[in-house]
Amino acid sequence: MADQLDLGLEPEAAGLRKQWDCVLTGLSKIAPRPAYESFLKGLEALHRENGRLVIGAPSNLIKRFVEEKYLPLVGDSVAEVFGARLELQLQVGTNGHARPAAPGAAPRSLSVDPTPPGCLPLNDRYTFESFVVGPSNRLAHAGALAVAERPGSLYNPLFIYGGVGVGKTHLLQAIGHRLRALQPGKRVFAMSGETFTIQFLNSLQQRRMDEFRKCYRGADILLLDDIQFIARKDVTQEEFFHTFNELHQTGRQVVIVSDRSPRELQTTSDRLRSRFEAGLVADIALPDLEMRVAILRQKIAQERVHLPFEVVETMAELVKGNVRTLEGALVRLLATASVQQAAITPEFVVDTLGHYYRNRADGRPVQFEEIQQRVCQTFSVNVTQLQGKRRERNIVLARQVAMHLTRELTNASLPEIGRLFGGKDHTTVIHACTKVRALLKTDAEFKRLCDDLVDSLTSPQACG
Ligand code: ADP
Ligand code: MG
After folding, report:
1. What's the maximum distance between 2 C-alpha atoms anywhere in the chain?
2. Can you say whether the dihedral through the CA atoms of 43, 19, 46, 1 is positive or negative?
3. Which of 114, 165, 407, 461 has its CA 20 to 30 A from that of 31?
4. Ligand number nearest to the C-alpha of 225
């Protein structure tokens, strides 16, 4: 089995890579999504020596952003995965195999960035070729393809929306790749709403608005990810409206990605909303079983491992969430198999992932209130104690178990979980989850108790 998992790296480097994948998966849960997509995802662990971890960033801009804003978050996620706080040192340059490219794909370019400042390099993995099409994303995919091939003519703007991890950024960047290949002379700007906002506010502060406007209005194609971050801020929204109009009126293509439909974008002005709706609005939903199988097969091929079909099917049935959850499950499975040198069978899948990804048979999401209620019954405490600050042993344990279950069974992020437990810090949540995971490994009775809780919470007739 070991050779099935051989990723062509030295064992030590491969180990570090797997750990780093887990760090990124952790970060994707605690960091704001645009920050994760734009700044954190491209980081790569280069080497570890003693108490220090050297991390490569794809560009100086990203290195700076991470150092200024996200180092504590990265530190938390590293501590959770490595089991110790490490000193983090950032440097520019990655060696490009943190996330293997699709077979046959060109190696990731390290420093060549043809876009103007503020635009982010496109992720090499996010192409049309690696995008699996199915019922949940067919319209969005067709729209994206049409726009990539004939920008500014058919659907302008193209507005793509959907929940977390369903492939919105992937599709947006696929448009960017295709456009750059077909029309190398065009200026394709790809960025997140958060970056747009940060740059706008900086320019405003530094009285460099003219430069800002000139820069953005020089785009031939604007690909804007996670626009909901702009929609909240009045002045930025106004500026975006002008940029958008200028581009749109002169026939330049705008593609917008959002976590909700134009109608649901809060505080977006009516004029902006109706402009958005004038183009093609397409949503992406969660993948169904068949599509989850197709996606897993593709990811497995990308990882250059071979897994029997029953294994893939078992995983696809077990892990019902979005594509990012599916990828996380695969990373977890491969990492566990590699550490334990185990053969990956359907039973191994259930053993490794069952506890984490079991959904209710009727597909209803588990609510945090149900988790808190059940845990309270099991540990004979009340909800006020669970959400409070008291340090008695059984209350602390109940609180930690409830936090762990909320993390594993709901989509809540670490800061959100902290809030659900009376405004605790996200580091408290990380600590709780680490503690519970350690106990699950060493204490069979505790594990049985937790398994029962998961069963009761995920069975179709669970709670109300
Ligand atoms: P979103 O922007 O909607 O939160 P992403 O585009 O970041 O989601 O997708 C999350 C992960 O899932 C990425 O690694 C992406 O490559 C993968 N993914 C999503 N949809 C698909 C798909 N249809 N085919 C292949 N991979 C996908
Ligand atoms: Mg995204």
Report:
1. 68
2. negative
3. 114
4. 2
